[in-house]
Amino acid sequence: MSRPAVRRPQLALAELHQLKWLLGAALTLLAVGTVLYMEVDAWVLMGLTAAATLATAVRPDLPSRVPRLVHWLAFPAMVAFFAGDLWLKTEILPAMVRLAVMLLLYRNITYRQRRDDLQVVVLGLFLVVVAGVLTVSLTFAAHLLVYTGCALALLLVITLTDAATGGKKLPPVPPGELPDWAQDADWRRLAERVRAVTDWRVLGFGAVLFAGVVGVSALLFLAIPRFQLENSMFLDRLITKKARSGFSDTIKFGDVTEIQQDTSVALSVDVSDQSQIPASPYWRMLVLDHYENGTFRLSLGLVGQEFGPVRTHALVHGDVKPQLGAATVWTFFLESGVSRYLPLLGRFELLRFREVQNFRLAPNLGLLALREEPAAMTAYRVEGFEVSGVLPDPGFAQRWRERTEANPRRGTLQIRLPLEAAEQARLAQVAREIAGPARLPAAEFAQRIEEWLRRNHAYTLSPSIPAGPGDPLVRWLTSREAGHCELFAGSFVLLARAAGYPARVVTGFRGGSWNGYSNNFTIRNSDAHAWAEIFDEAAGAWLRADPLGTSAAAQAAEPRGEQALVSRMDRSWKARLDSLRVFWYRRIVSFDTASQAETLKAVKEATQNTGKRLREEFEAAVAKLKAWLAQPWDGRRFFRLAAAAAMAAALVWAWREFGRGWLAGWSRNRGAQGHPVRREAGVWLRRLAETADPADPRVREAVAELQRLRYGAPATWPEPSGVFRRAKVAAKVGRREAPAPVG
Amino acid sequence: MSDFVQPAQMNESKQALDRLRNNMRRTIRGKDNVVDEVLICLVAGGHLLIEDLPGVGKTTLAYSLARSMDCAFSRIQFTSDLLPSDVTGVAIYDETIKEFVFKKGPVFANVVLADEINRATPKTQSALLEVMDRARVTIDGEAHAVGTPFMVFATQNPVDYEGTFPLPESQMDRFLMRLRMGYPEPADEMEILRSTRGGYDAIALNPVLTRSEVLGLQALVPQVFVEDSVLDFVLRIVGATRTEAEFRAGVSVRGGLALRTAAQARALVLGRDFVLPDDVTELVAPVLAHRLALARQTSDALEERRAVTAALKRIVGSLPAPK
Prior knowledge:
A: C8orf32 fold
């Protein structure tokens, strides 16, 4: 049915109150949800607040049943709680977070006044901002957007309520009493009413306003200098969620596999030169040298020997000598909760953090460890990677050479095999069977062991280790059970050490997918991998040996660069989501003010270029027109011009003849909006009723015609444009004299 | 049938209605709006209930209408001992042809004046109201059509309650409109005092409209165009009476239809072939007020009438008219 100019109904005061109540509850839930990001002991409070908020949102009559005692005791109790919290835990920020959650809880079990609604907005904002500063995650950005929308809506409803009450302040609802609006709240009816009341114009206006707020924020965000709040303020003690699974200094068999179940993103990597991307990148994080009863770990000895002192700096210089020309820049975005050991492709020239960090570097191991596991996403930029499966280790090479002469205990850290003699002998026997009695070069030996392992064991994520006495890994090694990467890598190390080759387990990630939307590497937790490294005395370097992958030698033959990316291309919807995350990281992360200035400059240039291009195009069009006019005029040109004019006239005529009918049919089918002619006639009728003198015969005539257009049968309509023209004239001549001022 | 009134028909109807109106104004002085409302009721094909004190011209109104048309007029004075057969007629055994012969009652006319309808017993009232609804009388299984056009003018005195049987609401619904006459303006009353002589039998009016012309006018009413937003307006008014707490029950579907038809008739009477929102708002009280009863008890009928009218006025004022 067509309902052209029916004024929309408006929400009653009670409905506004109901809406306000719901929006306040939504804001509370959003704000309380941010506690999930933070490592604050507020779980009980959070759960309680969320439950209470949900309950009172569903049943707004519940707050009236809250005992009077609660209202009397609420504020003293909160102050006491906060004071006690501070006294006992001496942490300001967590205490404040808990206090905010508690206040939100109280605000949701009492009927709020305007002041209290605003308090909910501010409290929520506090929580959202604290969580956002701490996590710097994309989820936070989304959270903040939703929160902003809800807060704007709440403010609008508050304004509407004020307008409906004529600006009068409503008296507070006494404890234990039920306000009218809460008595018969029916959310489904409210939803229908809101839908009926909502106008697309209002919605559009709201959307524009919201977009404006977001846009201005984005501009400010680009313009303000970056600084790390968590390092500059006291916030660093309040850290976000701990590792979900994470890499640690120890690895029990099964750890890496556990991580493999988790398909969330662990690391995103931007590469400045895609041709430098290796075929199968191995993102090294940690070296595990010490074996004991089925567990590999990083021994304290190796830490003491290889890791430098804790340094506090934003720049880390590596061993690779600077080369001519621009080095490839790799930008890493490491998610929180992965590890404090940073994934690296190998030795590097220069590593740059966004801000000063506490770290320890082990150049010979090719490892870099932060002092603490980062709470938020950590970004670092590496220049001049030496991407290869060969890691030179002059220190170890020297120790290995000198091992027999001076001190037999030197250099044994990565060769020790703490197994019973019988098992050692058995392993040595196996190694001899595989590699033969002669001592082979490390690369060849590694290749044979890898092949043997692959022949004897299949790959599975749920391995079974045969029962029996002795070392579990030896039991698996000598069986024919299927296993996962850690078992393969561990077996390799045991066999190599038994045969007298230094070897160690390396953990990190292998491979990753190439996000086709944002053009970056995405490495998921499920890409976690363990492999081995064997020492090559001839080269004085560690060679990568992956029993489950291609050997270092074979890798050289694999395609590099963009060709390698084709097979890794990921264009799934998940990749699309991840690309958003990377976009967010690229925007918020800036390694120095120069890159920020670059961004601003780019924005400015883009704007200027657009303006320039528009001007140029306009000038070109003018020049073209001039040239066209200057051409000699002959009959054919006149004819063509006339034909074009006739065509345009025919189009106009056809529109007037048929187009309106078509439009009428279309708008009839379209429903609620009404016929444009009727709408226009209604507008004119209102205008004449307001300004024109009804006694004037011309006005009367115009009104009669307009009424026919507005309410009459379309078949009896006079020509609408003529009617509107006459109405315009009538409005002018029939204008009522302004009433003389009285007084 | 086309869905709008042809210009030629429009002209004809305008002339016919002007003749009728002018004719009636010669006897009903200073009550132009009442005359118009009677005409609306006539062309809409509805029945009329006039409530007012005795002696303000109710009968004269009915009489002048009937006289202005080429129509049969009859008048029934309702009393407490009036029987249904006194209204509808009765079958009498005719000795000569040895059969029952139907002897037509006073309802077999075109304009029937049912004076003081609330004085008759409910049974007799029902007999009349059945005729009003179906436009025919069924006696002994035989249907007898009453005249066409057929219009009942019922009058009642709302103040005088002694020995009356107020019409139940279901039967009030059968009347299209309820009007009040009211006293004439002093100038008009002066004119009445000066010129009127004798009773209404002395009213000398020439018929200016034939029966077929009246039927033609009635046939035009459904063709008067009602735009969707106006229909929606009607619907919203009817809906608002149903949710209004002051009323015992809202307006029925028949009430909504009556409002639409009356609005179409008003458009026609005022010389338009389409309905304006004004047509609806002007007719809300006459068409809907008698169909509504207050939820609370009132001391007398007049107060109830006033309260209902005020509530209706408030409803219409609160609803935005189509723009």
